[in-house]
Amino acid sequence: MADEESSASTADSDSGADGGANGDSGADGDSGANSDSGADGGANGDSGADGDSGADGDSGANSDANSDAGADGAPDANRDSGAAASPDAPTPEPPSPEAPAAESARYRKLHTLSGALALGVFLVEHIATNASALGGRATYDAVVGTIVRSSVLPFVEVVFILLPLAFHAGYGLYLLRAKAAPEAVVARYGDRRLWRLQRLSALFVLVFVLVHLWELRAQRLFFGLPADALHTTLTARLSSTWAGVPFVALFYVLGVFAVAVHLSNGLFAATAAWNLGVSPSGRRTARIATLALGGALFAAGAGAVVALATGTRLLPGADGDSAAVAVPCGSSAPPPFRVSPTPSR
């Protein structure tokens, strides 16, 4: 009978040893008295470390519940969140919205600088030079021919004209893609209508400059047009008519007007961009000065176009003859025949 009880106790002890994850829980025969509770208690090694807790089936059940909670509950969630957000990892900073605005402001200032200084100075010089046509062909050839035959002209054209023109036109087209502009930019013109006028004049100026470059600069560069033939070429082109209307001359007059408006309006906005004359009296002075400059440029440029198209001489010529020469428009007819006095015998 004692052997049977010992055998039963041994069987229970073996059962407790199989169910217990910790050998200490199976070391006490009392803990192995209930193999089911020992198996449950063995699911948690900490609970199974105490043989008495393994003897209590309820305690083992609680240990098992705690084990399940440890597998699926909040502690694991905390571990996961800790793994996802490491305290040592640097937090990326979001891009500042002020960076693109500052970069755009720099490009706009460069745009106004290239237009106001580089191209503005060139336009004043170019129109003033071509206004020498008001003095006739001899004056025009003397002034323009000297510049065209200069050895430093290619360097000046590339560095001070073509590169600023390419940037000004390219970035200007980029700005034209936007249907609106910041209010600070529009306010520089004093009125939204003047801002729209600047955009419209920019398109016409671009077309006019491309046509003008093709008719003269490209002809000289690629087709060998001599410098002393510029006056003749311009006279022939501007005096040409279609159905009795001098469309080329009208196109040039409108082009000169668009250039004068664009430069005058752009210079006024540039003074605001560079904080020059920002007071009300300063703005009025800047407006008057830029309008006067634009009006003078248009008068000189349109007068040169009319002189080349009609052959009218409005200023004294290089030969000192202030009288207008009656030559048909665009004609290569010789000057009026002059009768020389017959020498006496």
Summarize this entry quickly.
The chain has 345 residues and is mostly helical.
State the CATH superfamily name of the largest domain.
Fumarate reductase/succinate dehydrogenase, transmembrane subunit
- Give the radius of gyration: 47 Å
Instruction: Count every beta strand, where a strand is a DSSP E run of 2 or more residues.
Output: 0
Helix tally equals 15
Beta-strand residue percentage = under 5%
Largest sheet: none
Mean pLDDT: 72
CATH architecture of the largest domain: Up-down Bundle
Terminus-to-terminus distance:
182 Å
What is the domain tally? 2
- Give the CATH class of the largest domain: Mainly Alpha
Query: What spatial form do the alpha-carbon principal axes imply?
Result: globular
Kindly name the structural category: mainly alpha
Order of helices and strands: HHHHHHHHHHHHHHH
CATH topology of the largest domain: 3 helical TM bundles of succinate and fumarate reductases
Helix-residue proportion: 55-70%
Low-confidence stretches: 1-85, 318-328, 330-340
What's the topology here?
Blueprint (H helix, E strand, L loop, with lengths): L1 H18 L3 H5 L7 H8 L2 H4 L2 H5 L1 H16 L1 H11 L13 H33 L6 H12 L4 H24 L6 H5 L4 H31 L7 H9 L8 H27 L6 H31 L35
